[in-house]
Amino acid sequence: MSDKYDVIVIGAGPGGYVAAIKAAQLGLKTACVESWSSSDGKSQVLGGTCLNVGCIPSKALLEISHKFEEASHDYEMQGIIAKDVKIDVTKMMERKSGIVKQLTGGIAGLFKANGVTSIHGHGKLMANRQVEVTDSDGKTKTYEAENVIIATGSKPIEIPPAPMTEGYIVDSEGALEFDEVPKRLGIIGAGVIGLELGSVWARLGSEVTVLEAQDTFLPAVDQQIAKDALKQFRKQGLNIVMGGRVTGAEVKRKLVNVSYEDGKGKQELKVDKLIVAVGRRPFTDNLLAADSGVNMDERGFIFVDEKCKTEAPGVWAVGDVVRGPMLAHKASEEGVMVAERIAGQKPQVNYDCIPNVIYTSPEVAWVGKTEEQLKTEGEAYKVGTFPFAANGRAMAANAASGMVKIIADEKTDRILGFHVVGPQASEIVAQGVIAMEFGSSAEDLALTCFAHPTLSESVHEAALAVNGGAIHIA
Ligand code: FAD
Questions:
Q1: What is the DSSP string of 354-423?
Q2: Residues 44, 339, 326, 132: what is their CA dihedral angle, to the nearest 10 degrees?
Q3: Structural contact between residues 182 and 41, judged by C-beta atoms closer than 8 angstroms
Q4: What CA–CA distance (Å, rounded) separates 112 from 242?
Q5: 3-state helix, strand, coil in the chain (%, to 5)
Q6: pLDDT, tens digit, 9 for 90 and up, residues 112-146
Q7: Where does ligand 1 bind, in terms of residues with CB under 6 Å?
Q8: CA-atom Rg of the chain in angstroms
């Protein structure tokens, strides 16, 4: 086969592999370059951060630890006798790895079925859409394409006060690989990743302290929802320290001594392991030749327009490596849009309708604007909320905490924001996404018939409440 392609994708995470499959489905001759190798270095691993060290393994551990916690603490009051419930960390990790292997192998199968050529090695974009690939033996080969899609993702940010120290101070990747439950666990950063990983290990028995430098908990989340979530996390035993700025961390006698400052002054924390979860940076190391024509913005993200076009003709970039939320589904949406644009179609990504989820317990999920954003923008709005405490299905599931909150335009009633803290918020938020994609009003949802008894009835009631008509709350 010739080394000239219609499309070469660099990176096989959810941005890149989805773009490659879509491009091939649209009849374009497509190759995908991926550098990730198996631990023995022999074979290529597809799926990127999401499948290997992100969304999927973290959710596998969240599901298992949730079941463990329920069996340990919540079964007895429901009449279920499950004595001496124990966790086998090795087996838990084997299950997690099995799920990852199945899914990453599945992508290899999809590439084959769709005719995507998979190239194993590090890709570098040269001038005129040439891609130089270096394999694990250091051999290079150059490929040419009409279009190149960069989808090289992101890497965890490291901070000088807490340098990575194997087995003690780790990033999110290391936190998915512990071989035993740490007695005391410190986490720097109360963002999505810190809270999810903290939840996993807290449910399995760790004493978890989360140090967050900012004073506002989850500032991107509607603050009524964030405050409710914080209250519930603290009730579960997560020690979340707001305004706690880490100044140093060192390993001494098999313990990590963390120094930080909060409103009360200098503090010390001793933990068995410390996870640094302060965010991620776009990954562009050794990616662009000086004359590639692709530029980065001031924060290191590849500069693209709203259609994901870079400044070099025929070169596109999607996913974590460009502006916007670092989310797998956002990366995939962009990948599909770019493939379709290359094929001559005119799709767009609706950035106002991208859902966000924190997979803690309770889950937190939202789409659209928060009250704080609308206030800043001077928009007139109305709000309807409904608590899961008044929802029969949530009670039956022993998960009757949290709420659904719907924000609508004061005049037109169009839904502007949809927020959930509570059971299965990650699934419930899809209703808000669909409603907003279709430009629904709160009344549209209020006029819809919802099955009884379901958690989704809280969506119905919150929509009714927007215009003052909720039934099951005084
Ligand atoms: P990536 O998935 O990072 O993939 C980039 C790929 O490019 C990698 O495979 C890399 O090896 C390859 N690559 C890089 N440079 C080169 C090169 N020069 N040549 C060849 N290959 C290269 N998001 C969600 O939406 N939901 C979640 O629940 C969720 N949970 C997460 C949990 C954790 C612990 C973490 C760390 C992240 C989580 N994310 C989640 C974020 C999600 O993983 C990312 O948003 C997503 O993976 C971004 O996809 P991407 O394709 O842009 O990049």
A1: --EEE-SSSEEEEEE--HHHHHHHT--EEEEEEEGGG-HHHHHTT----EEEEEEETTT-BEEEEEEEET
A2: 40
A3: no
A4: 49
A5: 35, 25, 40
A6: 999 999 999 999 999 999 999 999 999 999 999 99
A7: 10-16, 33-36, 48-50, 54-55, 58, 122-123, 151-154, 172, 193, 283, 287, 319-321, 326-329, 331, 359
A8: 24
CA distance 156 to 326: 12
Residue 14 alpha carbon to ligand 1 centre in Å: 7
Total residue length of the chain: 474
Atom nearest to 17 CA in ligand 1: 51
Q: Is the pTM of this model over 0.80?
A: yes
Cβ of 297: how many Cβ atoms within 10 Å? 12
Q: Which residue's CA is the nearest one to ligand 1's atom 29? A: 55
Which one, of 220, 261, 221, lies nearest residue 241 by Cα? 261
Give tens-digit pLDDT for 153-190: 999 999 999 999 999 999 999 999 999 999 999 999 99
- Asked if residue 424 lies in contact with residue 458, where contact means CB atoms within 8 angstroms, the answer is no
